[in-house]
Amino acid sequence: MSQTTKSPGDFLREELEARRWTQADLAKILDRPLPTINRILQGKHAVLPEMAIALGQAFGNEPQIWMQREYEYRLSLASLDTGDVRKRARLYELAPIKDMQRRGWIHKTDKIDGLETELKAFFGVESLDRDPTISASARKTDASNPFNAAQRAWAFRAKQLSQTLRVNEYSDAKLGVAIKKLRRLLGWPEQSRKVASILAECGIRFVVVEPLPHTRIDGVAFWLDSNSPVIAMSMRFDRIDNFWHVLGHEMSHIRHRDDPAVDADSVIDERPSSTGDEIEDRANREAAATWIDKSELESFIDGVGPLYSRDKINQFANSLRVHPGIIIGQLQGREELRFNAFRESLVKIRDTVTAEALTDGWGHEVGI
Questions:
Q1: Using CA atoms, how far apart are residues 304 and 319, in angstroms rounded to an integer?
Q2: I want to staple 211 with a disulfide (CB 3.0 to 4.6 A). Which of 76, 82, 97, 234 is the partner?
Q3: What average pLDDT does the chain have?
Q4: Residue 24, helix vs strand vs coil
Q5: 148-164 average pLDDT score
Q6: Phi and psi for 159 in degrees, rounded to 5?
Q7: What 3-state DSSP class applies to 44?
Q8: How far is C-alpha 363 from the chain's CA centre?
Q9: Domains recognised in the chain with CATH numbers
Protein backbone atom coordinates (compact mmCIF):
# COMPACT_ATOMS: atom_id res chain seq x y z
CA MET A 1 0.00 0.00 0.00
CA SER A 2 1.49 3.36 -0.98
CA GLN A 3 2.00 6.03 1.66
CA THR A 4 0.31 8.54 -0.71
CA THR A 5 -3.08 7.02 0.16
CA LYS A 6 -5.53 9.78 0.99
CA SER A 7 -6.60 10.05 4.59
CA PRO A 8 -10.23 10.25 5.75
CA GLY A 9 -9.39 13.88 6.53
CA ASP A 10 -8.62 14.54 2.86
CA PHE A 11 -12.02 13.16 1.85
CA LEU A 12 -13.66 15.13 4.65
CA ARG A 13 -12.03 18.34 3.44
CA GLU A 14 -13.39 17.70 -0.08
CA GLU A 15 -16.88 17.21 1.32
CA LEU A 16 -16.67 20.48 3.27
CA GLU A 17 -15.41 22.44 0.26
CA ALA A 18 -18.18 21.01 -1.95
CA ARG A 19 -20.76 22.27 0.55
CA ARG A 20 -18.85 25.41 1.57
CA TRP A 21 -19.02 24.30 5.19
CA THR A 22 -16.47 25.24 7.77
CA GLN A 23 -15.05 22.93 10.39
CA ALA A 24 -17.18 24.76 12.94
CA ASP A 25 -20.28 24.10 10.82
CA LEU A 26 -19.53 20.37 10.74
CA ALA A 27 -18.87 20.34 14.47
CA LYS A 28 -22.29 21.85 15.04
CA ILE A 29 -23.97 19.40 12.64
CA LEU A 30 -22.34 16.39 14.22
CA ASP A 31 -22.59 17.74 17.75
CA ARG A 32 -18.90 16.97 18.22
CA PRO A 33 -16.09 19.11 19.65
CA LEU A 34 -14.34 21.27 17.07
CA PRO A 35 -10.85 19.94 18.04
CA THR A 36 -11.99 16.42 17.17
CA ILE A 37 -12.99 17.51 13.67
CA ASN A 38 -9.71 19.36 13.28
CA ARG A 39 -7.65 16.31 14.29
CA ILE A 40 -9.53 14.10 11.81
CA LEU A 41 -8.78 16.60 9.05
CA GLN A 42 -5.07 16.45 9.96
CA GLY A 43 -5.07 12.66 10.02
CA LYS A 44 -4.22 12.63 13.71
CA HIS A 45 -7.46 11.10 14.91
CA ALA A 46 -8.93 7.86 13.65
CA VAL A 47 -12.48 7.67 12.33
CA LEU A 48 -14.17 5.36 14.79
CA PRO A 49 -17.44 3.51 14.03
CA GLU A 50 -19.59 6.11 15.83
CA MET A 51 -17.98 8.93 13.85
CA ALA A 52 -18.31 6.93 10.61
CA ILE A 53 -22.06 6.62 11.20
CA ALA A 54 -22.35 10.36 11.95
CA LEU A 55 -20.36 11.34 8.84
CA GLY A 56 -22.47 9.04 6.71
CA GLN A 57 -25.60 10.72 8.00
CA ALA A 58 -24.15 14.21 7.41
CA PHE A 59 -22.97 13.57 3.84
CA GLY A 60 -25.56 11.02 2.69
CA ASN A 61 -23.24 8.03 2.20
CA GLU A 62 -22.63 4.73 3.94
CA PRO A 63 -20.56 4.56 7.16
CA GLN A 64 -18.67 1.61 5.63
CA ILE A 65 -17.12 4.04 3.15
CA TRP A 66 -15.56 6.05 5.96
CA MET A 67 -14.36 2.93 7.77
CA GLN A 68 -12.78 1.61 4.58
CA ARG A 69 -11.00 4.92 4.00
CA GLU A 70 -9.71 4.82 7.57
CA TYR A 71 -8.51 1.22 7.17
CA GLU A 72 -6.69 1.88 3.88
CA TYR A 73 -5.04 5.02 5.24
CA ARG A 74 -3.79 3.37 8.44
CA LEU A 75 -2.52 0.37 6.50
CA SER A 76 -0.57 2.67 4.19
CA LEU A 77 1.19 4.18 7.20
CA ALA A 78 2.50 0.82 8.41
CA SER A 79 6.30 0.87 8.30
CA LEU A 80 6.87 -2.89 8.70
CA ASP A 81 9.68 -4.20 6.50
CA THR A 82 7.80 -6.96 4.69
CA GLY A 83 10.97 -8.03 2.90
CA ASP A 84 12.57 -9.08 6.18
CA VAL A 85 9.39 -10.86 7.22
CA ARG A 86 9.35 -12.90 4.02
CA LYS A 87 13.02 -13.75 4.36
CA ARG A 88 12.63 -14.78 7.99
CA ALA A 89 9.58 -16.90 7.15
CA ARG A 90 11.59 -18.63 4.41
CA LEU A 91 14.38 -19.51 6.84
CA TYR A 92 11.96 -20.92 9.40
CA GLU A 93 10.22 -22.97 6.70
CA LEU A 94 13.58 -24.32 5.60
CA ALA A 95 14.90 -25.46 8.97
CA PRO A 96 13.84 -26.01 12.61
CA ILE A 97 15.85 -23.02 13.79
CA LYS A 98 15.28 -23.28 17.55
CA ASP A 99 15.92 -27.03 17.67
CA MET A 100 19.13 -26.66 15.66
CA GLN A 101 20.35 -23.86 17.90
CA ARG A 102 19.51 -25.92 20.98
CA ARG A 103 21.59 -28.80 19.64
CA GLY A 104 24.48 -26.46 18.76
CA TRP A 105 24.24 -27.15 15.03
CA ILE A 106 24.04 -23.42 14.30
CA HIS A 107 24.93 -20.41 16.46
CA LYS A 108 22.23 -18.39 18.15
CA THR A 109 21.57 -15.02 16.55
CA ASP A 110 18.63 -12.65 16.39
CA LYS A 111 19.83 -10.97 13.21
CA ILE A 112 18.27 -12.27 10.03
CA ASP A 113 21.46 -11.89 7.97
CA GLY A 114 23.41 -13.78 10.60
CA LEU A 115 20.82 -16.56 10.65
CA GLU A 116 20.93 -16.81 6.87
CA THR A 117 24.71 -17.09 6.98
CA GLU A 118 24.50 -19.85 9.59
CA LEU A 119 22.08 -21.89 7.50
CA LYS A 120 24.11 -21.46 4.32
CA ALA A 121 27.16 -22.77 6.14
CA PHE A 122 25.21 -25.65 7.69
CA PHE A 123 23.74 -26.81 4.38
CA GLY A 124 26.91 -25.99 2.44
CA VAL A 125 25.14 -23.83 -0.14
CA GLU A 126 25.61 -20.33 -1.50
CA SER A 127 21.88 -19.59 -1.77
CA LEU A 128 18.76 -20.64 0.11
CA ASP A 129 16.39 -19.80 -2.73
CA ARG A 130 15.93 -23.52 -3.31
CA ASP A 131 15.63 -26.27 -0.73
CA PRO A 132 19.02 -27.91 -0.12
CA THR A 133 19.05 -31.51 -1.29
CA ILE A 134 21.01 -34.54 -0.24
CA SER A 135 21.67 -37.64 -2.33
CA ALA A 136 20.12 -40.27 -0.13
CA SER A 137 17.66 -43.05 0.35
CA ALA A 138 16.04 -42.35 3.69
CA ARG A 139 14.12 -44.69 5.92
CA LYS A 140 11.43 -42.56 7.57
CA THR A 141 7.84 -42.81 8.65
CA ASP A 142 6.16 -41.01 5.75
CA ALA A 143 8.54 -41.42 2.86
CA SER A 144 5.89 -40.72 0.24
CA ASN A 145 6.51 -37.04 0.94
CA PRO A 146 9.79 -35.09 0.61
CA PHE A 147 11.97 -34.42 3.63
CA ASN A 148 10.36 -32.03 6.05
CA ALA A 149 12.50 -29.30 7.63
CA ALA A 150 13.52 -31.42 10.64
CA GLN A 151 14.37 -34.47 8.52
CA ARG A 152 16.42 -32.37 6.11
CA ALA A 153 18.39 -30.80 8.96
CA TRP A 154 18.96 -34.22 10.54
CA ALA A 155 20.28 -35.68 7.29
CA PHE A 156 22.63 -32.75 6.71
CA ARG A 157 23.96 -33.05 10.26
CA ALA A 158 24.69 -36.70 9.51
CA LYS A 159 26.50 -35.58 6.36
CA GLN A 160 28.60 -33.12 8.37
CA LEU A 161 29.65 -35.81 10.82
CA SER A 162 30.44 -38.36 8.13
CA GLN A 163 32.83 -35.98 6.39
CA THR A 164 35.10 -36.03 9.46
CA LEU A 165 35.58 -39.82 9.35
CA ARG A 166 38.45 -41.62 7.73
CA VAL A 167 37.59 -45.03 6.29
CA ASN A 168 39.05 -47.51 3.83
CA GLU A 169 38.28 -47.33 0.14
CA TYR A 170 34.84 -48.76 -0.55
CA SER A 171 34.04 -51.75 -2.73
CA ASP A 172 31.06 -54.05 -3.06
CA ALA A 173 33.32 -57.01 -2.35
CA LYS A 174 34.41 -55.47 0.94
CA LEU A 175 30.77 -54.93 1.86
CA GLY A 176 30.18 -58.65 1.41
CA VAL A 177 33.06 -59.39 3.79
CA ALA A 178 31.70 -56.85 6.28
CA ILE A 179 28.29 -58.51 6.29
CA LYS A 180 29.88 -61.83 7.22
CA LYS A 181 31.67 -60.13 10.12
CA LEU A 182 28.51 -58.37 11.25
CA ARG A 183 26.62 -61.67 11.33
CA ARG A 184 29.06 -62.91 13.97
CA LEU A 185 27.90 -60.12 16.27
CA LEU A 186 24.20 -60.98 16.21
CA GLY A 187 24.16 -63.25 19.23
CA TRP A 188 25.43 -60.73 21.77
CA PRO A 189 24.09 -57.17 22.19
CA GLU A 190 27.42 -55.93 23.58
CA GLN A 191 29.15 -56.89 20.32
CA SER A 192 27.17 -54.24 18.44
CA ARG A 193 29.83 -51.71 19.51
CA LYS A 194 31.98 -53.14 16.68
CA VAL A 195 29.55 -52.17 13.92
CA ALA A 196 31.12 -48.77 13.18
CA SER A 197 34.66 -50.17 12.82
CA ILE A 198 33.55 -53.08 10.64
CA LEU A 199 31.71 -50.74 8.30
CA ALA A 200 34.73 -48.41 8.20
CA GLU A 201 36.88 -51.34 7.07
CA CYS A 202 34.69 -51.80 4.00
CA GLY A 203 34.57 -48.05 3.27
CA ILE A 204 31.18 -47.11 4.74
CA ARG A 205 31.01 -44.15 7.07
CA PHE A 206 28.62 -44.86 9.96
CA VAL A 207 27.20 -42.15 12.23
CA VAL A 208 24.40 -41.88 14.75
CA VAL A 209 22.40 -38.66 15.18
CA GLU A 210 19.73 -38.25 17.83
CA PRO A 211 16.53 -37.21 16.06
CA LEU A 212 15.12 -33.73 16.35
CA PRO A 213 11.53 -33.38 17.59
CA HIS A 214 9.06 -34.54 14.93
CA THR A 215 11.85 -35.96 12.75
CA ARG A 216 10.35 -39.47 12.53
CA ILE A 217 13.27 -40.89 10.60
CA ASP A 218 15.16 -44.11 11.32
CA GLY A 219 18.07 -44.05 8.93
CA VAL A 220 19.48 -42.66 5.73
CA ALA A 221 21.89 -43.92 3.09
CA PHE A 222 23.72 -41.44 0.87
CA TRP A 223 26.98 -40.86 -0.97
CA LEU A 224 29.45 -38.05 -0.38
CA ASP A 225 30.78 -38.88 -3.83
CA SER A 226 30.63 -41.85 -6.19
CA ASN A 227 32.86 -43.96 -3.93
CA SER A 228 32.02 -42.69 -0.42
CA PRO A 229 28.84 -44.22 1.03
CA VAL A 230 27.36 -43.16 4.35
CA ILE A 231 24.86 -44.82 6.67
CA ALA A 232 23.31 -42.67 9.39
CA MET A 233 20.87 -43.90 12.00
CA SER A 234 18.67 -42.10 14.53
CA MET A 235 18.11 -45.09 16.85
CA ARG A 236 14.84 -43.48 17.92
CA PHE A 237 13.65 -46.97 18.80
CA ASP A 238 16.15 -48.39 21.25
CA ARG A 239 15.66 -52.08 20.43
CA ILE A 240 18.00 -54.74 19.12
CA ASP A 241 15.60 -55.88 16.40
CA ASN A 242 15.02 -52.37 15.09
CA PHE A 243 18.73 -51.55 15.02
CA TRP A 244 19.70 -54.55 12.91
CA HIS A 245 16.72 -54.20 10.60
CA VAL A 246 17.38 -50.53 9.84
CA LEU A 247 21.09 -51.22 9.37
CA GLY A 248 20.32 -54.01 6.91
CA HIS A 249 17.80 -51.80 5.12
CA GLU A 250 20.34 -49.01 4.57
CA MET A 251 23.03 -51.50 3.48
CA SER A 252 20.61 -52.69 0.81
CA HIS A 253 20.41 -49.14 -0.55
CA ILE A 254 24.20 -48.92 -0.57
CA ARG A 255 24.59 -52.33 -2.22
CA HIS A 256 22.22 -51.43 -5.06
CA ARG A 257 23.34 -47.81 -5.33
CA ASP A 258 19.71 -46.77 -5.33
CA ASP A 259 18.84 -43.49 -6.94
CA PRO A 260 18.38 -40.69 -4.41
CA ALA A 261 14.85 -41.21 -3.18
CA VAL A 262 12.85 -40.94 -0.01
CA ASP A 263 11.74 -44.33 1.30
CA ALA A 264 8.09 -45.14 0.92
CA ASP A 265 7.61 -46.49 4.42
CA SER A 266 9.41 -47.17 7.65
CA VAL A 267 9.32 -48.49 11.15
CA ILE A 268 7.19 -46.79 13.76
CA ASP A 269 6.72 -49.70 16.06
CA GLU A 270 6.16 -52.38 13.48
CA ARG A 271 7.23 -53.39 9.98
CA PRO A 272 4.56 -53.78 7.33
CA SER A 273 5.01 -56.75 5.02
CA SER A 274 4.64 -54.48 1.99
CA THR A 275 5.14 -50.74 1.58
CA GLY A 276 3.81 -50.51 -1.97
CA ASP A 277 7.23 -49.38 -3.18
CA GLU A 278 9.38 -51.90 -5.07
CA ILE A 279 12.73 -50.56 -3.86
CA GLU A 280 11.60 -50.30 -0.25
CA ASP A 281 10.05 -53.75 -0.26
CA ARG A 282 13.31 -55.11 -1.65
CA ALA A 283 15.30 -53.30 1.04
CA ASN A 284 13.03 -54.69 3.76
CA ARG A 285 13.31 -58.23 2.37
CA GLU A 286 17.07 -58.00 2.10
CA ALA A 287 17.36 -56.48 5.58
CA ALA A 288 15.60 -59.53 7.02
CA ALA A 289 17.50 -62.06 4.90
CA THR A 290 20.87 -60.45 5.65
CA TRP A 291 20.71 -61.60 9.26
CA ILE A 292 18.50 -64.71 9.17
CA ASP A 293 18.28 -67.17 6.32
CA LYS A 294 14.77 -66.96 4.91
CA SER A 295 14.37 -70.71 4.43
CA GLU A 296 15.46 -71.44 8.00
CA LEU A 297 13.03 -68.91 9.42
CA GLU A 298 10.17 -70.26 7.32
CA SER A 299 11.03 -73.81 8.38
CA PHE A 300 10.86 -72.71 12.02
CA ILE A 301 7.51 -71.01 11.40
CA ASP A 302 6.09 -74.11 9.70
CA GLY A 303 7.25 -76.36 12.51
CA VAL A 304 6.37 -74.21 15.52
CA GLY A 305 3.83 -71.56 14.59
CA PRO A 306 1.51 -70.40 15.83
CA LEU A 307 2.39 -72.01 19.20
CA TYR A 308 5.52 -69.95 19.80
CA SER A 309 7.12 -70.10 23.21
CA ARG A 310 10.12 -68.39 24.73
CA ASP A 311 12.00 -71.68 25.01
CA LYS A 312 11.42 -72.61 21.35
CA ILE A 313 12.46 -69.15 20.15
CA ASN A 314 15.58 -69.24 22.34
CA GLN A 315 16.53 -72.68 21.05
CA PHE A 316 16.13 -71.53 17.45
CA ALA A 317 18.11 -68.36 18.14
CA ASN A 318 20.92 -70.34 19.80
CA SER A 319 21.13 -72.68 16.81
CA LEU A 320 21.68 -69.65 14.55
CA ARG A 321 23.84 -67.78 17.05
CA VAL A 322 21.41 -64.87 16.83
CA HIS A 323 19.89 -62.92 19.72
CA PRO A 324 16.27 -63.98 20.38
CA GLY A 325 15.15 -60.37 20.03
CA ILE A 326 16.12 -60.40 16.35
CA ILE A 327 14.07 -63.54 15.79
CA ILE A 328 11.12 -62.02 17.62
CA GLY A 329 11.38 -58.82 15.58
CA GLN A 330 11.21 -60.75 12.32
CA LEU A 331 8.30 -62.88 13.53
CA GLN A 332 6.47 -59.70 14.48
CA GLY A 333 7.27 -58.20 11.08
CA ARG A 334 5.69 -61.25 9.46
CA GLU A 335 2.69 -60.86 11.79
CA GLU A 336 3.41 -64.24 13.34
CA LEU A 337 3.56 -62.59 16.76
CA ARG A 338 1.70 -59.70 18.32
CA PHE A 339 3.83 -56.63 18.78
CA ASN A 340 3.50 -56.81 22.54
CA ALA A 341 4.74 -60.41 22.70
CA PHE A 342 8.08 -61.18 24.37
CA ARG A 343 8.94 -57.47 24.51
CA GLU A 344 11.49 -58.02 27.27
CA SER A 345 13.67 -59.84 24.73
CA LEU A 346 13.90 -56.70 22.58
CA VAL A 347 16.82 -55.40 24.61
CA LYS A 348 18.16 -51.87 24.46
CA ILE A 349 21.25 -51.43 22.34
CA ARG A 350 21.74 -47.69 21.76
CA ASP A 351 24.34 -47.07 24.49
CA THR A 352 26.42 -49.98 23.24
CA VAL A 353 26.36 -48.85 19.60
CA THR A 354 27.08 -45.20 20.38
CA ALA A 355 29.99 -46.08 22.67
CA GLU A 356 32.26 -46.38 19.63
CA ALA A 357 30.27 -44.88 16.75
CA LEU A 358 30.54 -41.17 15.98
CA THR A 359 27.42 -39.88 17.70
CA ASP A 360 25.63 -36.56 18.05
CA GLY A 361 23.10 -36.64 20.87
CA TRP A 362 22.27 -38.33 24.17
CA GLY A 363 25.12 -36.51 25.87
CA HIS A 364 27.60 -37.04 23.02
CA GLU A 365 28.74 -33.61 21.82
CA VAL A 366 30.52 -33.16 18.52
CA GLY A 367 31.95 -29.76 17.67
CA ILE A 368 31.90 -29.17 13.92
A1: 15
A2: 234
A3: 90
A4: helix
A5: 95
A6: -65, -45
A7: coil
A8: 21
A9: 8-77 (1.10.260.40), 83-123 (no CATH), 136-360 (no CATH)
